[in-house]
Design goal:
Length: about 500
Amino acid sequence: MTTAADGLRGDVPAGHGLPDGLVAVVKRDCPTCTLVADVVTRLSRDQHCVVLTQDDPSFPEGVASPVDDTALDRSYLLGIETVPTLLRLEHGTETSRVEGWERDRWRSFTGLDDLGDGLPEYRPGCGSLSVDPTRSDDLRVRFEGDRLASRRIDIAVLEDEMEAAFDRGWTDGLPVVPPTPVRVLRMLDGTDRSPDEVVAVIPPDLVACTVEKVAVNAVMAGCRPEYLPVVLAAVEAACTDEFNMHGLLATTWFSGPMVVVNGPITRRIGMNSGINAMGQGNRANATIGRALQLVVRNVGGGRPGGVDRSTLGNPGKYTFCFPEAPVRDLPAGPDWPAQATEMGIGPDEDSVTLFAADGVRGFVDQLSREPESLARGLAAVLQAMPHPKLALAFDAAVVLSPEHLRVFREGGWTKQDLRDRITGLTTFRPGELTRGAGGMAEGMPDGFDTVELPKFRDGGLLVFHAGGGAGLFSAVIGGWASGAMGSQPVTRRIGT
C-alpha cells in the first residue's frame, strides 16, 4: 500500500537516451506498421532515423539496428499513444510528431516528396503497447513511483489487504480501498497541485499534510480523481483557526464537519443535491466527506478515544457531504442566494462550506401554504436546539427542501426575510432563560436575565437548499459552540 506523485507527460523528459533527429516507433503486431516497414527502413538509412520496436527486436527486418523497446521504457517516456509514430527531437526535446500513417504529412515532415509511393494515403495505426491497460499501470509506477514520498507498507502474500488496513488502524470502521502506488498516482491526476505542496497542518497532532497525503486518504475513502480538488478545499477549510477542527475533535458534544459544496463542479462530478441528498447512494457525496474524516484520522491522529472525546458522536462523523441545489432550477421568485454566495463566493464559483454539525433533525410541515406559518414552525423547532433555554451558544443550519422553499418564494420572501422573522420569533424576553425558570435547571447564567436574548448570534443561522422535489419536509441541523469560543462556518474556493 502506498502513495502518489505528479504526472510525467508533456515535453519529452531527459533520460530517454535518444539522439536528436527523427525517431520512429513501431510494433510488428500492427498492420499499419507492417504496411510502412519499407518507409521506416528508408528513413533509417537515408535520414538516420532511430527506430524503436515495441514487440519484436528484429522488426522491421530492413533496419540495420532497431532499438529494442520491448520493456517500453522509451515509449513511455516519449508519451507514445499510437504506432506508428514519427517524431523529431531537438536538444533532447520533442518538437513535432505524426501519429499513424498519413502520406502527405510524412512527406512534409521528412522532406521526401516520393515517400510511400504506392501506399494508401491514410491508415490510422494501432494503440501503443505503452498505453495497453495491462501494462500502463506498471510503467507508471516504474517511472513515477519513486517520486512518491509516503512510506511503503509491504503486505504479506497471505495477508488480506482489507484486514491489514483494519489491523493498522487506518479505517473509520468501514473497509477502505488499498492505496496502491498506481491508485494514488491516478488520484493525483485530479489536481494541478504538486504532490509535495503542504495543504494544511492537521490537528490534533499538528502534522503538515501534503497533497500526496490527501490523495492517499481520498483513495482509501473511495474518491474518484475529479473529487480531489473538493477534498483539498475541505481540508484547508477544516484546518483554519475559525473552524477549529482541534476543538471540534476534543469536545464531548456530537459534532463533526459537514461539507456543503457549491458551484458548477457539483454537476461535473455527479454530486446529488436532490432526492436523498444527505443520505446514501451517491459516490461523490459519500466519499468526499469520508476523505476529509480519514485525513483528520490518519494524518492528524484524530481518533475516537484519543483526542476525539465525543460522548455519543453521530453517523455524520463517517461522512457528511452534499451539494446545495441551485435555486435557479426553481420557478422565478425573489433573490435567494446560495449560502456560499452570502459568504463572499461568486454564484458561478466552486466552493465548499464547512459547518460543525451535530446531526440531522427532520422538520415536517405539510399544511402551511404561506411564509408566516411555515417560518413559525421552523422557529419553534430551532428554539429547542440544543436546549429550549440556551441562547447564542450554538449555531444552526436549515436545509430547505424545494417544496418548502417554494412557499417562501411564492409568498415574496427573500432568504434575509426568513432569517429576520426567525430571529424575531426566537428572541427571548428578560428572565425567560434564567436557570430554574419553567422548572428546568438548565438555562443562561447570571447576568443574562435582564435583557432580551436572540437564539442565534449574528451569522449563526445558515440556510441551504437541497432535496427532492416532492415532500414537504426540511431539515434542521444543530451546531457546536458558536463563534470564537467554538467553531465558525468557513467557506473556501475550490482550486484545480
